[in-house]
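OP here, attaching both records as promised.
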Amino acid sequence: MKKIALLGSISGAALLVASAAGAQDIDWKSELGDHSGKTLHMMTITDPFIDSIKATKDGFTTITGGKVEVDGYGYDALHEKELLACSQNDSSYDIIMMDGIWIGELAEAGCIDSAEDQLASGKPEIFAWDDYTPSAAGQASWEGQRMCIPVGIYYELMYYRTDLFEKAGVKVPETFEELKQAAKTFTDNPEFPGVYGYAMNNKRGAAAGQQWFEWIYSAGGKPWVSNDIGSSDPYADQTPLLNSKESVDLVQFFKDMVAFGPPGVESFAWDERANAFAAGKLAMINDWSVRAQIANDPAQSQIAGKFKAALMPHNEGGKTVSPVGGWVACVNAHGKQKDAAWDFLKWFGSQAVHKQYVLAGGPPSRLSAMQDSEVQTKYPWTEQLFEAQKNAWVEVRPRHPLAFQLIDTVGVDVNKAIIGEVSPQAAMDNANEQVTNLLKQNGLLK
């Protein structure tokens, strides 16, 4: 099984003007068809970038006459809906946005069309595939084929309150131990009333499972035998290493960090973590880059302009391997309006339109957007994103058909250790056994 291994707001009217101006280098009228009377339907996650899509999409209507409707769903619900629709040959949605780790599952089930023919027949300057970060391109690819268009690629960063760090005179942590000590400084400290040191994704299931995969490389470990950074065939030997010393020590670290979080942090997931930081209750968090918008928005944040980003910490003597994830846009294999769907993705994914989408709050997936001075001025953490993409590893989380189930399985045991139901060693011994059995049952491990 050989896989590709690659290393504020703008008003809708203003954005359309900016999009049109930015796209003048391409004659979109000649590049795109007339789709008057058609309405494309897209399903996506309700992450913050859904509003950025909605703010940008009507530029396509101006050019082609075709409308685009966007429906959002929660993480688990979206995964379930996409699989169910595929199994029923449902054509209700023309474009499906998927987490990059679902691509093996949906591609091998015949749910999405490959992008290769479109890329081969289109003008290279329009798709500008080489402008995507390598890990963004990897998230959109499977079994040697480019399947989808990267539009919402995330990198996990550590965010910290600059006002608190300056007052405490604390160094921005680079290692796990420094992170623990910094978190301790801000917790139950009368100089910082109402503030806790840190919060992680500890909730049982997908949240805790993804957290483990996101941190394991920076902890000096790896999830399975052949998944070495830069490997051309990371799925050759999927013998799990969930109960390695590095893994058990990492889970113990997760458990230790609970002491520096607010009440209920054992069940925090993506929203709870981001909202607590924006509310000024936390000195630090690690989070996907798309959610930095929440903390940066004065309308919903108490700390706008008072935080910065840094690379994720690493184990003593190790190095940071930045987690990569995020969303890719794919054409429904059972859709009835494929020409219009590909035209939309060709337009929406182009460099000029992508920049406008990013300025509207969307996560940058292109090198040109990350290095754009206007983008960096509006979203200063973009400079750290550019650094993070340099050391990211696309296979940091499994992306084959069992990815969703595997991550959820690991997350159950990780959470059991975090809440003290079992020891970290016992938890990860069980996780290793469960994942081994699951892989064997599905023919992915001998």
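Record two, same layout:
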Amino acid sequence: MQIAIASGKGGTGKTTLAVNLAYFNGIDLFDLDVEEPNDYLFFKNAKEVESEVVSRKVPVVDQSKCDYCGKCRDVCEYNAIVVLKDETMIFPELCHSCGACSYFCPQEAISEVDRPIGKIISIKSEINLAYGVLEVGEASPVPLIRAVKRKIAGNAIIDAPPGTSCPMVESIRDADFVVLVAEPTPFSLHDLKLAVKVIDRLDLKFGAVINKHGLPFDGVEKFCRQEKIPVLGRIPFSTEIAERYSKGELLFEYRDIFKEIYDGVMELV
């Protein structure tokens, strides 16, 4: 069972839900927000058990074989190759590792080498946690997200990147259930609607959790009722919760909320 925690925007409480849901229900946690992973901060006594470098294939050109015919440039859909009068240049940041340039090169002047794009760190505490750390300057986190997902075996809580772009889609597309976290504000409602459209296109089961419940805006509740989106739980608006989060502390006083959310997911699944 894979339960993905997602949100249409950052700052809604996605990490708060993911780490506490995993901890209080004894489920492995996978942080796929590889550009800014912070789930590990909540597990002070955790021990690192594995660190694995993740690479992807990028082309290199043997200039002594290249006749600058431009075939590699023509087949590259991502404009990662520029052919000059006396040099063929590769821009690995734009490359999507499709292999077309090396396959179609008439002179066999292009080969592929491994380019490190990040690493996967696995730690062990009361629960197991694996997360990715993307190298600075890498344009796409998707290959690293896929690598972290290959570590999933059995029940898992997936902390997806915020937003509705490719990293979020890649993180949730294989999930058995998606929990969308929203806060009662107009901005969060707008982005919740975008996230719902994405999940509908992926044909995934989903529900919502309202964080900072108690703020004076009922638009999110009304939207969920209108669209028949099950609200699985409400985390109260609380200075105490904000302080605990800022210190990287779990919410033991609210553990029943996270157990009820998990039970609600299991009933819907």
